[in-house]
Amino acid sequence: MDFIQNFPFFSIMLSMFSGTVCSVLPRRAARWVNTLMISLIGVLSFVLLSYLVVRGESYVYMMGHFPAPWGNEIRAGILEAGTALFFCVIMLLSMLGGRKKLQEEVVESKHNMYYILVNLLLSSLLALVYTNDLFTAYVFVEINTIAACGLIMIRQNGRTIEAAVRYMIMSLLGSGLLLLGICMLYDLTGHLLMSNIQAAVQGILEDGTYEVPLLVTITLMSVGLAIKSALFPFHAWLPDAYGYSTVSSAAILSSLVSKGYIFLLIKIIYRVIGYNVFGNSHIIDVLFVFGLMGMIFGSLNAIQENDIRRMIAFSSVAQIGYIYMGIGMGTGVGMTASVFHILSHAATKSLLFIAAIGLTDVSGGSRHFIDLTGAAYRNKWAGVAFTVGSLSMVGVPMFSGFISKLLFAQAAVQNHVKMLPALIVLAISTILNAIYFMKTVIRIYTPEEGSEYESVTFKNMKTYAVTLVCFILLNVLLGVSSQPIVDLIEQGLSMFA
Amino acid sequence: MSYFVLLPILFPILSGIFLLVRKEMKNRQSLLITVGAALVITTVLAITAMLTVRDEIFLVFNLTRTLPVLFKIDGVGVIFGIVGIIVFVCAGSFGFEYMKHEEHEKRYYGFYLIVFGILMALCFAGNLVTFYLFFELLTLSSMPLVLHTGSKEAVMAGLKYLFYSLCGAYMVLFGFYFINRYANTLSFSEGSVLNPELAAGHASLLLGAAFVMIMGFSVKAGMFPMHAWLTAAHPAAPAPASAVLSAVIVKAGVLGIIRVVYYLFGASFLQGTWVQSVWMTLALITVFMGSLLAYREPVLKKRLAYSTVSQISYILFGLAVMDPDALTGGMLHVICHSLVKAVLFLCAGAIIYKTGKTRADELRGIGKEMPVLLWCYTVASLGLVGIPPTGGFVSKWYLAAGALSSGIPGFFWIGPAVLLISALLTAGYLLPITISGFFPGEDFDYGGLKKREPGVLMTLPIALLTALSVLAGLFPNVLTDFIARLAADIL
């Protein structure tokens, strides 16, 4: 066994460990430990990714030298390592971009707590990505939920506490359903390791026994994870949670937490249930339809919103809809498109959140459109970044959003039944996106004579500006040289199966 | 060498961005010199590129494995490119004087140059992806020109422009998804790129896709029923920008349709289908309706915008007939309409600049005050009506001849008839200004007149464009030979 194969385990443990250390360090040191640790895990994931690309196949890692079915397992393939790397990059950038705002919005004594929660969140996300064991997945789903609640609540005002309670209730409902599903699956198959369950499920199907319980199980797990990732119509918790929490939390929640659950769902589809079984059940159609509805209703809600943060939050509902539509398409290309959109949406949405905070800061802290008039002149970097994010969301070529849309369309034309609804909704949703994002861009670029608010220059926000530039580059990178990434995703998915 | 094609695209875009980001210049003079130099250099670069790297493919990079971004200068690109250059340079130098009374000149010229570069990129785009990319960018970058004055009316017009254009672009994208599936390549090539094996059995689906794409591009070209933005957006911009929008930017839609119909699906695929019939019907409705609305419109710039709606659909009708003569006529009309409409909008701008009058019925006796300007206006109007020896006559002749010889049931005579009626209406809405301008009538008070001829910076571009529009009619063979050869190639 190569030493590199330990890296997934190291990543998870390092992240947890640094969380513990952060609790006793002074504030500045905790910040540095946090930043360094996320970067280090990113580097580890990158090394692992290149190792796996060279090796060309995934591997299973035994925890504590107990073989299956007693021991716990970690599994690493290209998709896992790539996702872990991407999560680290987005998390690092979100933390850097929201750092100043965090200092303003959160009481000083809570800063260490924040870094602990972020580290805990990262470790649970990594565990969700790497684990090969359903029960471990469930445990980390819960850790993830608790950490996310903390991230929402850390900025203590009435709205965030309300939002956190809402999030908690909905999220626990989701985990409850997931747990029920896992229990039933354990009942049916007698296993908790993913590969064993899959073999057993095949047996069940061949015998023709327990078909209905299996369907119920699939439903429970899909719906549970759909609630946690805010698929329409389970999105009620989302706008407040993303809209009022401190900006790093909003960026991390929207681009990583919900994506972690979707990644878990994809993993369950491929590695637990089996892609064909899932494709033949009707759950896939239900996800498809909910995805389509989310694309429309999320955007409609966003259009009605007068608050820029909540508008971006509602736009997430629409984008989650895209991802579920791709999953529901039932083709390999559709799944590739969904995974690519996970990346593309994560890169774009965190950019938008971070850029929006720069705009609201130079508008007296108000998030209402009327006050944002001309904000892009007062904070030029945030203005440009917000425009780039919007263009990407709208799907202008050269940015990541266009490639996602293209992939979704390519997937749609392969499925003759779902082709027309998918393409039509894609077109409508794109236009709706354009309506609210372009409206905002025009608003922030409408000059306002004699503004009462001060403008900021590069000197006052070096970290912030550099973060924005990194985000923009990431977006352009995804948009311009998407082919290698798509190839990697395809390879990763084939390793899944 | 083939990278030469990038120069006329990147140079104006970069110089436009340079203007936008740098600080306000101390005096107006240096701004104008910068802009003038940028326009001249771009012209030289574009013409060099057209002469040296015709038909060479330049691959910029691969967006995805099957979708490269590439440029190629072909015949159609050259025609649209040259028209664009002429109008941009003339309207630009007209603006040197005109924009004095508008604010934010630096921003205006920054976006003006960016639009110029993007237009060049559209003309030289070698495949649908590249075209789509710059088509979107054209909308986004030309919007600040519409928004320029910042009045409520302008903002509403700008939003209208944006949403209509984006809707159009997404209709194109919608069709793009289908053609991407059933075609060998998306590079523009004469004839059809459809893969016969893949496309077999999907003809009705592909016809639908073709229709959606034609409709999408025709939003930009202002065809009924998606024309409402045009008559709001074009008059809202400052006069030189209106001239550019009306004369060249709408032609981007026309170019898109030419690319889709003649370079992707292939004319033979669409001939005799419902797509062609519906398209011709809509074009003819637009021709007639545009003229009629222009006839009833009292505000001069709006009247000219309605006239654009009508005239562009002449071109679209010519393209829809899919006959070599009609196609030649359509492309000729691209040239003539651009020159003429630029003259008309610049004249309207000069009148506003000097007198502040915007309504057509306020212009009595204007010919006594600015004779040169009104002469140019008159000659250009005659061109739009289609009276020999102007270019408009030649193009309409070809359009009518092509329609008559195409033998499409019904349309072969309805088409020319509608074109004729619309020509009469065109005379009806353009020439009264000349008549009351030169012959204000006996009760007119000549005492209040003063010499108000605009300066040479404004008059010269107008006169130049007018002269070109007449030359196009006096020596049409140069153009018709070139275009007819092109039409024969792609049909």
Question: What features would you describe in this structure?
Answer:
The complex is a heterodimer of chains A (497) and B (491). Chain A has 497 residues and is an all-alpha fold. Helix content of chain A is 77%, strand content 2%. Chain A contains 21 helices and 2 strands. Chain A has helices at 7-22, 27-55, 78-97, 99-105, 111-130, 134-153, 158-189, 194-207, 211-228, 238-244, 247-273, 275-280, 283-304, 308-328, 332-361, 375-378, 380-394, 400-412, 419-444, 462-480, 482-496; strands spanning 59-63, 72-76. In chain A, α13 (283-304) runs antiparallel to α14 (308-328). The two termini of chain A are 23 Å apart. The model of chain A has no long low-confidence stretch (mean pLDDT 88). Chain B is an all-alpha fold and 491 residues long. Helices cover 76% and strands 3% of the residues of chain B. Chain B has helices spanning 7-21, 28-52, 75-98, 105-124, 128-147, 152-182, 196-199, 203-220, 228-236, 239-265, 267-270, 274-296, 300-321, 324-355, 366-369, 371-385, 391-406, 411-438, 456-474, 476-490, and strands at 57-64, 67-72. In chain B, strands 1-2 form a two-stranded antiparallel sheet. The radius of gyration of chain B is 22 Å and the shape is globular. The interface between A and B is medium-sized, with 29 and 29 residues.
